[in-house]
Amino acid sequence: MRTRSLENERQAMELGPQIPLVQEVSELWGEFLGGCEVGADDDFFALGGNSLIGIRIIDRVLQDYGVALSVRAFYLAQTPARVAELIAQGREQP
């Protein structure tokens, strides 16, 4: 477990100001993926994600952040860090 937290700390340092959003997205994924711990660069499908879970996460992102992600963009992003980038970009658009 300690190795996992060191990895998460390293990832957080690399992500800079997006850290809180990436952590929130990671926690959101964990919630929908059976409570597992999700790191910033963990792959959605490798964690057991599927189309139904993806749709539920996309809906939750819209509710929580007001950003509509396309299914395609979500699946291509594959990691919480990349999904957080999409959310940040969506927030910047008028």
Tell me what you see in this structure.
The chain has helices at residues 2-15, 19-32, 51-65, 71-77, 80-92. The protein is mainly α. The termini are far apart.
How is the topology of this model organized?
Layout (H helix, E strand, L loop, with lengths): L1 H14 L3 H14 L18 H15 L5 H7 L2 H13 L2
Largest sheet, described in full?
none
Cα distance spanning the termini? 42 Å
Q: Give me the secondary-structure category.
A: mainly alpha
Low-confidence stretches: none
* Helix segment tally: 5
Order of helices and strands: HHHHH
- Structure summary, number of beta strands: 0
Fraction in helix: 55-70%
Mean pLDDT: 86
Beta-strand percentage?
under 5%
Q: Evaluate the radius of gyration.
A: 13 Å
Q: Give the overall shape.
A: globular
Protein traits:
globular; 5 helices; mainly alpha; 94 residues
Summarize the structure.
The chain is 67% helix and 0% strand.
